[in-house]
Amino acid sequence: MARDTTDFRPIEGVDELVEHLAEGNKPRDKWRIGTEHEKFPFYVDGNAPVPYGGEHGIRAILEGMQSKLGWDPIIDDGRIIGLVEPTGQGAISLEPGGQFELSGAPLETIHQTCREGNAHLAQVREIAEPMGIRFLGLGGSPKWSLAETPKMPKSRYEIMTRYMPKVGTKGLDMMYRTCTIQVNLDFESEADMRRKMQVSLKLQPLSTALFANSPFTESHPNGLQSWRGDIWRDTDNQRSGLLEFCFSPDFGFADYVEWALDVPMYFVIRDGRYHDMTHITFRQFMAGAARNEVPDGLPTMGDWANHLSTLFPDVRLKRFLEMRGADGGPWRRICALPAFWVGLLYDEAALDAAEALTSSWTYDETLAMRNAVPEQGISAPFRNTTLREIARDVMVISRMGLKNRGRKNRDGYDETSFLNTLDEVVARGTTSAEEMLSAYHTRWGGSIEPVFMEYAY
């Protein structure tokens, strides 16, 4: 999230919080695709991490991008920490360890999404390469220890850094040493949101498996295919993971609100300053718990929007749904992730088929699958088969959905070609992580340094 929200309307009651989510309902012709992707900057000389400051640091890249694009700077305590397109059509932001993120514009087709990603990577390379900086497309930082990883000067991250060790063992790794690709998708009604939430929660472990791309930590194999997926198993289980209540046949906006109300807050912003609120839940905040702690200590709709952005379930509900299961990866994966989910969720026949495929899957079965995937990838067991076999069926459904959409580029090709990189994973029976591990043990000669050449943008 590039910029935290300021909306000073006071909250009168819980119904307003439910309505805030319901305002995301959109007719089908207004549905859009918003893709986010993160990557690790590194110095080509020595494959070292890039700090915020200095003539050839993250700040300099942001300033160069600002000059090139004409986007508005996002300032935190006098320091540039991101950029936003003036009409809200996209943003560039920093993750805690310097991971460089594009939050893409809401677009109509995967063709547009792919062009957007390609243009962004070309632009950032133009600025960064003269500084000796390139970007790595992986799900986890393969070389640098937590102590070696830079820290970005962003106020909300200072609060999170203090809080994470109190609620899990891997939160700091999540913040500083992982990258993801996400896609944000719309719904037309509460019932439509429910269907999409339930299908995508059940299939999120499959997404993690197909995109598994983080097998190295501190220059050695870590025994996992998705280190990032494993990290999320013990980051902060009050606000992340697989939400069992979402599996209910009556799940709706109000249920998500009730859950969110009882999750501890991170912060509120008053007069441009971030105030640590990790000691209370949003429900306690609404009851007046911060009345004497911070200026204007009663909750606003901006506080609620910011709180929703600090919840990290496998599928996050705001005024749209965020698919959060995939590791970061190379350029083709940036296009494949939105194609995979758009194919499943934006065509009625495909959504019907995905729902039928997963309708009998229980919370416990899905959780077991989620727990197995970080180590086993698409070989993880499910019932009497494996995720690889499940993937064959799901890819057929996604491809059908994209074909039914019929969104063609200028050369007459539809969006199905963007699934090819995932088809390769299923056909091979090995993930990107397994391919990297094979290279490490053979042609890379037991070194992870070649990853900085082969997986760089």
Short summary:
This protein has 17 helices and 18 strands. It is an alpha+beta fold and 457 residues long.
Describe the secondary-structure layout.
Blueprint: H1 14-22, E1 33-43, E2 48-49, H2 58-69, E3 72-76, E4 79-84, E5 91-94, E6 100-103, H3 110-128, E7 133-136, H4 155-167, H5 171-177, E8 180-185, H6 190-210, E9 216-217, E10 220-221, H7 227-231, E11 240-241, H8 253-261, E12 267-270, E13 273-276, H9 282-286, H10 301-308, E14 312-313, E15 315-317, E16 321-327, H11 331-345, H12 348-358, H13 363-376, E17 381-382, E18 385-386, H14 387-405, H15 420-428, H16 432-441, H17 451-454
Parallel strand pairs: 11-14
Antiparallel strand pairs: 1-2, 1-6, 1-7, 1-8, 3-4, 4-5, 5-6, 8-16, 9-10, 12-13, 15-16, 17-18
Subunit structure: Homodimer or monomer when oxidized or reduced, respectively.
Catalytic activity: L-cysteine + L-glutamate + ATP = gamma-L-glutamyl-L-cysteine + ADP + phosphate + H(+)
InterPro entries: GCL_bact_plant, GCS2, Gln_synth/guanido_kin_cat_dom, Glut_cys_lig_pln_type
